[in-house]
Amino acid sequence: MATDKQSAEKEITVEEKLSTLYQLQTMMTEIDKIKTLRGELPLEVQDLEDEIAGLETRLQNYQSEIKDFENAVVEQKHKISESSSLIEKYKAQLDNVRNNREFDNLSKEVEFQGLEIEFSEKKIREYGEAINHKKEDIAHLTENLEGRNADLAQKKGELDQIISETKQDEERLREKAKKLEANIEPRLLAAFKRIRKGARNGLAVVCVQRGACGGCFNKIPPQKQLDIKLHKKIIVCEYCGRIMIDPELAGIDE
Fold first, then answer.
1. What is the pLDDT, as a whole number, of residue 10?
2. How far apart are CA 188 and CA 66, in angstroms?
3. Euclidean distance between CA atoms 229 and 83, whole angstroms
4. What is the pLDDT of residues 127-173, one digit of tens each?
5. CATH 1.10.287.1490 intervals, the chain
6. What is the 3-state secondary structure (H, E, C) of the chain?
7. Are 203 and 215 a contacting pair, CB within 8 Å?
C-alpha cells in the first residue's frame, strides 16, 4: 500500500506541478480582471451605506433632543402654573395681614414667584428657539439623506448590473480553479496563495521574459535560467519571491 502511494506521488513531476500552478494563476488573473471591472463600486456602496447609517443616527438624536426640549417646556409651564397659584394665594393673604412684618414677607414671596415666572418664560423662549434650530437641522439632514439614498440606489444598480453580467463567468472560473487546486499539494497551494496575497498585481507565477523575472523584471543569473528551463525544481525570484517558469511551459513564444 505504501509503495503504491509513493509511486502515485512520484507520478506528478515538477513540470506538471508548475504547469498546474500556471493554469491556476491564469484562472485567478481572469477573476481579478472581473473584480477590476467592478472597480471601486463595492467600496463606494459600503462607504455610502456607512454614511447613511451615520446620518440616520444623527437624525434620531435630533428628534430625541426635540422631545427633551418639549418635555422641558412642559416642565417650565408647570412651574409657571405653580408660581401663579402661589401668587394668588399670597395676594389673598395680604388682605388679612396683622402687621408690617407679615406684609413684607408675603410681598417678597409674591415678588419671588413673579421672578420665577419670568425665568420660566425665558427658558421656554430659549427651548422654543432650540427646537426651531433643531427642526431646521432635521430639514437639511433629511434633504441630505434623501440625496445619499438616491446615490446609493444608483451605485447599487450599477454594481448589480456588472455582477449579473460577470457572475456566470466568475462562477465558471472559480469552479475550474477549484478543480485545479485539488491537484496541487496543500503546502505548495498555501505558498501560491501567500505569494498572491503579497503581490501587488496578484501574480504568484510569472514567466521569464528576456532573462528577467516577469513580476519584478530583475535579471536572473544564467545558471538559474537554465534550472528554470529544465523544470526539475520549483524556483522563486530572489527579489520578489514569485514562482518563475519557462515561457515554453506556459505556451508563450518569448
1. 52
2. 63
3. 100
4. 999 999 999 999 999 999 999 999 999 999 999 988 888 888 999 99
5. 41-166
6. CHHHHHHHHHHCCHHHHHHHHHHHHHHHHHHHHHHHHHCCHHHHHHHHHHHHHHHHHHHHHHHHHHHHHHHHHHHHHHHHHHHHHHHHHHHHHHCCCCCHHHHHHHHHHHHHHHHHHHHHHHHHHHHHHHHHHHHHHHHHHHHHHHHHHHHHHHHHHHHHHHHHHHHHHHHHHHHHHHHHHHCCCHHHHHHHHHHHHHCCCCCCEEEEECCEECCCCCECCHHHHHHHHHCCCCEECCCCCCEEECHHHHCCCC
7. yes
**Residue ranges of the chain with per-residue pLDDT less than 70:** 1-10, 253-254
Q: Please name the residue that has the C-alpha cell 513580476.
A: 215
| pLDDT score for 12 | 81
Query: Cell numbers at residue 179, please?
Result: 478543480
Residue type, 132: N
Say what the pTM is: 0.58
List, for residues 164-198, the tens digit of each pLDDT value.
Answer: 888 889 999 999 999 999 999 999 999 999 999 99
Residue with cell 467600496: 43
Contacts of 123 (CB under 8 A, 6+ apart): 72, 76
Task: Look at residue 73 in the predicted model and tell me its pLDDT.
Answer: 97
Instruction: Report the top-level CATH class of 41-166.
Output: mainly alpha
pLDDT reported for residue 98: 86
